[in-house]
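Lab notebook, bench 4. The sequencing result for the construct came back, and we need a structural model before the next group meeting so we can plan mutations. Quick request posted to the team channel:

Model the 3D structure of this chain.
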Amino acid sequence: MCGIVGIVARQPVNQELYDALNMLQHRGQDAAGIITNEGDRLYLHKDNGLVRDVFSSDEIMMRLRGNMGVGHVRYPTAGCSSSAEAQPFYTNTPFGICLSHNGNLTNAEQLKHELFVDDRRHLNTDSDSEVLLNVFAHELMMCGTLRVAPKDVFEAVSRVHLRARGAYACVALISGYGIVGFRDPFGIRPLVFGKRQGTYGVDYMIASESVALDALGFERIADVAPGEAVYVTLDGKLHRRQCAANPVYSPCIFEYVYLARPDSVMENISVHKARLRMGEKLAEKIQREWPDHDIDVVIPIPDTSRVPGSELAQRLGVPYREGFVKNRYIGRTFIMPGQAQRKKSVRQKLNPIDFEFKGKNVLLVDDSIVRGNTSQEIIRMARDAGARKVYFASAAPPVRYPNVYGIDMPTASELVAHGRSEAEIEKLIGADRLIYQDLDDLIEAVRHKHSKIERFDCSVFTGEYVTQDVSEDYLNQLELFRSDAAKEARRVRAGNVVIELHNSR
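Done. Here's the predicted structure in token form:
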């Protein structure tokens, strides 16, 4: 999961790219980067860390010159977490192209082979984003033009769609020409674009979520459709074209459950309203299956579950209370490496307000249950705070399968719901009662009458991957690469290399 942005404006874009990335910080807290273009020069700065830490001085910002640029915030889902794999990525052939990518290619290994053997292109990292950059660059070069025209850009994107599989929402800068945004033919990861009338002309922005447009005064035009490319030239002209033969609108439903900001509008669906409806559906299920419940209070696990939790409480006619104080400087726990570190971070991240729990039957509401260790720790904290009974509700169905489209979710064996019944999960996390959202109810909660969505990617709940190219072998390789043990082994190897280098001096 990452956040991407591109801006073409009539004035310098360095500060606006910085501001947009801050609005997308929730999509990636591991690394950040910005590249700008002025004349025939590109200016790049990227590193590990939050946006405010990577761009920590006026000197850094002043070096990012030009009226066009792209930015990126990252959670790593493939490759490693070194600063070398921070984005945007750059290649000088042809023209000079930079790319920011949100998603994950499911055929990255095949494409690496094709790029090396057939296309004679060299890769410097293990990132599938660099793979995608080089595929796009090669296909643009194959147009055989000395100057870039919109038709060349669209032809290159069309050929990317023929070669690349998986999820990709991208913003690419072509030095001296413009910025192109494009999505895979399923539209799995989000991308939206908008315009703003400035003093000197019209400015354009392409970004992961509409909140980035809102904050900088851009008017939302539309979501980039699945398979579509949007090209904005340096002189401020907008071009659009459908570049895929058979696009099927299939956005990731987990964006609405957890990833996106509630003030975003994605695919013409308000994330806030979708989460309200999730709470409504949960309340209906409790009233249907547990009409004589003895819930005294509803308490959300901050922050994402506040909206569904408040609606659930209202529908049940039960008091809603804020029972946990959140430390906002601790990262998302299901992405953290190592079970011990995750358990420790839960205690540092949340602290209960004892009198909201003492002597009460408490219904805790969370957006989802992934590994289960966070839920287990939170339930234990509620009991320690004096709760008589602790019930637990999830706004999402059981997460039983890994995500292969750009979320660094655990492997199947590390998911608490994989291979377990709801009764077994209830016992494992220590809840007195566990209530999961039904998948049909989740889909109904998110779907909107004005949306063109044909289906959602619900693969983390069903194991049915919309690209239809995810084999058992692929998932097995994912298990070997993504598991806690594999990540720890890579960390140790990296540490040993540092020690060896130090000792050799």
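Residues 333-338, 501-505 have pLDDT under 50 and may be disordered.
Will bring this to the meeting.
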